[in-house]
Amino acid sequence: MIERLVTGRTLPEAYHRALVELHEFGELCDCPDYNTRQKELSMTLFIEEPNAEPMISKLFIGGFLELEQYRQEILDGILDFEVERGNWEYTYHSRIAEQLPFIHRELKRNPDSRRAVIDVRDWRHDTREDNDSPACLQHIHFFIRGGKLHCKVLFRSNDAAKATFMNAFALILLQERLAGELGVEMGTYTHRANSFHAYEKDFPLLEKYVEAIHSGDVITYCYRGEWDELMEEAKPAIEKKIEELRSR
User: For the segment 127-142, what is each residue's pLDDT rounded down to a tens digit?
Assistant: First the structure.
């Protein structure tokens, strides 16, 4: 499988470069689990200043409401009740949150530790033959180096056109929250996907993204002072939606 590495100062810069790499160098292969084909390669995105502006890419499925809901899902666990009800086996938040106290203790105990790892993959559930939704996010590794909190994440599988941006955005905000709680500055963010892919039905979407990247048009927004205000305005609608889900 082809290996690629892209770097960028900001999240959109690295993300856009990754989309171009997939479009140009991705290998066409079968994806029998979903009865389709895909473009695929292994991708690492290295982001030097993950919370630097502009932080929002226009090239993802959804808008400020969907991004705010996903942020709340990862950071605040607004859908964890589905696990409590037995409808879902897990959410990313449910697996991450129960391990965060260890991360705090470990990095307070030894800021130079290499042990501050969250294992999102749970082999007891994710390897069962009847499990059709094993976790794509595998683990999150935090390091404090030079007084900064660095974050490295591993996905076994990552949908480049429809998931990667939202995944990275929410995980960067998790990193930012943790850095604040630990009293350190933000460091780099590294996003690794062993299978960075786009399904055949999304090839036109990927091509549209790449055309926008090459167009020279502005395809980013600032998060703070722009989208954060829109995301804040979306909160009542999200709360109503979640309450409707709870009441079913």
Answer: 777 766 789 999 999 9
> 23-46: per-residue pLDDT in tens?
999 999 999 888 999 999 999 999
Taking the alpha carbons of 72, 77, 79, 81 in that order, is the dihedral positive or negative?
negative
Q: What is the CATH number of the domain that holds 76?
A: 3.30.572.10
Report pTM: 0.96
Residue 14's identity, in one-letter code, is A
Neighbours of 211 (CB within 10 A): 11
Cα separation of 10 and 52, whole Å?
A: 6
Count how many domains the chain has. 1
Residue-wise over 233-247: b if at least 16 C-beta within 10 A, else e? ebeeebeeebeeeee
Range of the domain at 54: 3-247
Which residues are 196's β-sheet partners? 41, 158
* Paired strand residues for 151: 142, 189
